[in-house]
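tool=predict chain=A
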Amino acid sequence: HGHGHGHGHGHDDESKGHGNGHGGERNLSLNAAYIHALGDMIQSIGVMAAGAVVWWKPTWQIVDPLCTIFFAAIVVHTTTQVTSSTLRILLEGAPAGFDFEHLRSELEGIPGSRNCHCLHVWVLSPGLSAGSVHLTAENPEEAQERARRIFNDFGIEHTTIQVVKEGGEPPPCCSDDRKEHKEHRVNCAS
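tool=predict ok
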């Protein structure tokens, strides 16, 4: 039952036009620490400004809670990107702005390929995405290599590509006689 698994691991620091290269983003922890320090500085400026206004005009005590709310909103706004990136990683979401249908179209355009299914793309860490796909093709080795290059062109360097020779046995997760994989098959069928 001819199939192959490709596990391409390129490590170019340059993205290939899709914004997912290793060197494109800072470490998430460093980013969070930087934003935390910036937030502390902004809050301190707010406290000093409110204190100066209340010292200058004691009847303007409303300035203190207004400044607190204003600077808290700034801090929340600055943490949105880190929170979004963290959730995307934890929930194994697709990279932000990723054109999933374009990738599917490219994979379906591989010469001799008859079926592209169970296509998944997700974020492993900032700047590092993973992808997997099952293909049916006349020439599994050639289809696997072309699929690996297509994934690489989309900035997806960690891939698992399973290719079944046309007329061969389907992968276990897509066969009808494997009940334990029924839910997965429904979710990934094209």
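The chain has five helices and four strands. Residues 28-56 form the longest helix (29 residues).
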